Amino acid sequence: MRSNPKYDLSSPPPESWLPARRFALSVVGPIERFMHVEAASGLVLLFAAAVALIWANSGFGESYETLWHAPFQIGLGNWVFEQSLHFWINDFLMAIFFFVVGLEIKREVVEGALSSIRRAALPIAAAVGGMVVPAGIFLAFNAGGPAQHAWGVPMATDIAFAVGVLTLLGKRVPPTLRILLLALAIIDDIGAILVIALFYSSGLQPDALVIVGVGILGILVLTSVGVRPGLLWAVPFIIVWSGMLQLGVHPTIAGVIVGLMVPVKSWFGRDKFLAVARSALDEFQQRAAKSDYDERELVEPLNLLAQARREALSPAKRIESVLHPYVAFVIMPLFALANAGVHVAGISMEQAGAMTALIGIVLGLSAGKTLGIVAFSWGAVRLGLSSLPPGVTWRSLFVVGAAGGIGFTMAIFIAELAFTDPTLLAAGKLAVLIGTGLSAAIALGSGHLFLSRPGDDDTGVTESDVESSEEYWTGKPDPVREGIRARFT
Fold it and tell me: Which of 185, 391, 396, 422 could be bridged to 174 by S-S, CB 3.0 to 4.6 A?
């Protein structure tokens, strides 16, 4: 733990035991440093998938299935809702994952890389190609067969894994290339969400729309009376989730709906935060300066300071920053642990559709994604709909295409919905793991081959690339950088 040289924050708080605190810090410190590594969530996800595979294929494989199908219930009085542990992870916890996806989508549409048609054209074209071509390749092998309904599996991109792979390439990756992958993956998520809602939901129960409407109305009421997003929003979130569950649409879509309703504009912003914070600190100082002050008198200025801190950022950014560690290091690894455990010896490729499903998914992810992303991007540029961002070449776009084939989390999620036959589901999951592994290897190999380190030649990442990246994706120069430049020029 770092401490301010003026105020020693490393000293133990009152009533704590110094040896116990030192031990806790020695454990927590390395974990915190690891979590700040950009590729960390992808590595944790990979570890969880490896554990699941080893566990399912070990002598304790039966316990793997037993654990995830164990009943888990919540209830109050006579009302009890019981489902398997697998359900709570895939249908409830993943709704929180989709909630964060909804926040990212709205933020990018309002103020990010998707806020301008001109800037959004390239990632939209790339994402559409990265969905259409893999689905086409899958159907080429499976049309008319028992696995044809699973055409959506190879369409998905796993943001955490893909970004993690690009991070392993270090400074070879231009900033615009990283942002392009993020924007592409977000649009890919929108496509996956639509596919899940339209093609992988059960028969609709229109009466449940009333429940969904009540939840959405609750959010609108909270927003209109000025209740900022927080724990109170969990109530309408659960109402929308339960309505989606009864409606027949996959309940994780509730996360996207609520995420899209979170405001993306801050209330205070930078200037008002500074003014309110200074006022609160001045009031705190005046009250604390009294010789006979009561600590309860300090609550009001401290509450005002807490409000200023909370409202300095938009609710979307604040909630995303709070939930991201839990999603990246708890929910997604749990999902991997509960779903990646494929019993390889139990897969029979002689069953109708198993081999073609495996080939279609593997080729769709490892080849179709790259082909679709590069080809549709080329078409968008050729037609004059967009241009390549600064620092991005067609060779580096190939790297993005390969990384787009890393479909792990979302691909397995869609496979769970698409395959009803256990053998086909196992073959589909195995195919996702193989296709993801091949795509990661291709992305890393092509990245080392096609991307240059800064200083190797004139294609390396330079300061001008960073500045051009900011201006390309936001449409304006970074104000902080411009202010610093103005002072020294």
Answer: 391
